[in-house]
Amino acid sequence: MLTLARIVNDYFSQAAIDFLLGNVSYLVFEDFEANMMSGDPGVSMQKVRQQAIEVSQKLVVADETEEFIGGWTFFTPHTSNTIKSTPFEEAVLLLTDAALYMCRFDWNIEKVSSFERVDLRHIQGIKYGIYITSTLSPAQADESRNVGLVITYKAGTDDITRVNTRSFSAVQLPPAESDAQKSATSSSLVENLISLQAESPSRILALKALPSRSAVSDRQDSPKMSEIGQVKGVCGEIERTVLMGQVVEIGAERKGIITQGDIISLVEARKSTGLLEQLGHSLKKLVWA
After folding, report:
1. pLDDT tens readout for residues 121-131
2. Which of 12, 116, 206, 219 is the most exposed place for a label (fewest CB within 10 A)?
């Protein structure tokens, strides 16, 4: 019967069958309404995410002297340095005693596709609060469950961004250049890079908490930390590590870098949800349900 359940193509029927078999909880219908898809209850996402954190740590933390503090998975906008650009992707955030690593992960081949390293000395502030990116379903518009954080930093020479070109099937190369042209081009790029770093404004890393509740039945009945609890915990770890590395005068107090406030409020999210997006979601519900 389980085999029969897994070969059903209709996502809603699949969700209903899994629920009747006891493989998932009622939350599967919330997930379906939001994503129009149902997950595989046979796959432990907690283990998959933990493995992604371990793979990312081994690949991107090249300096063996850096002490690993923790790793987490978050949703992040498709375009970097923004708070909303669809589709949102699930990414890995790593914290060491020297830097933050924002890793975009290819979940299909289980490899890091790109990452950004931010020196902790360049972090200017952390803001956490309501982070609603869609209002197409009640679960997506729930202010208590849709939260996140935005890390503001000043880009510096110690910060790097790298793309794993091996994850691409083809790379288009420029025409061949003479040694003189290569030298001139390289020199120009270095000068432009230094100029951009000197004049660049503050940048941001936007991270949205993953749902703390899962449709997959929890046989261990272990307590789950809420989304806001997860966000506050990560903010606290980053702030503590940043402040530890700061040099302050004797008798002076270390200033906190965490503030609370809406990232995208429910009102703002409703204003930005277009009619076409609503019609598309309604059409999908008619097709699948």
Report:
1. 999 999 999 99
2. 219
